[in-house]
Design brief:
The protein has no helices and eleven strands. It is mainly beta and about 120 residues long. The strands form two sheets. Strands 2, 4, 5, 6, 9, 10 and 11 form a seven-stranded mixed beta sheet that branches. It has a four-stranded antiparallel beta sheet with strand order 1-3-8-7, with no helix packed on it. It starts with a strand and ends with a strand.
Length: about 120
């Protein structure tokens, strides 16, 4: 079993930045991919970015060039640096972990709210 804990969400003005963190606890040896999904009110949960233990990344087209995902394998932690934030980035951001990239996560965090508003 894997337990994921997110932090770093909050309120930010358009054009601002936030950094999300997600720490994994438990049987993390069984997972390879970690990343972030988000869900806005009335919409389905969508992929934001993901990364493997070897550093291979996958980004949603809407965030490419603005968001950067990184991972500290020693700390079992994944980060999402979000720059040039837009109001449409407002959502609950969920950390996820799974066996491989391009598959739905096997484990989810509880989510952290990101609100972009002036």
């Amino acid at each position: 079993q894997v337990h994921l804990v997110e932090s770093g969400g909050g309120l930010v003005q358009p054009g601002g930045s936030l950094r999300l963190s997600c720490a994994g606890f438990g049987s993390i040896v069984s997972i390879n991919a970690m990343g972030w999904h988000r869900q806005a009110p009335g919409k389905q949960r969508e992929l934001v970015a993901a990364i493997t233990g070897g550093g291979i990344t996958n980004y949603a087209g809407s965030v490419k060039g603005r968001f950067t995902i990184s991972r500290d394998n020693a700390k079992n932690t994944v980060y999402l640096q979000m720059n040039s934030l837009k109001p449409e980035d407002t959502a609950v951001y969920y950390c996820g972990a799974g066996p491989r990239l391009f598959l739905p996560p096997s484990y989810w965090g509880q989510g952290t709210q990101v609100t972009v508003s002036s």
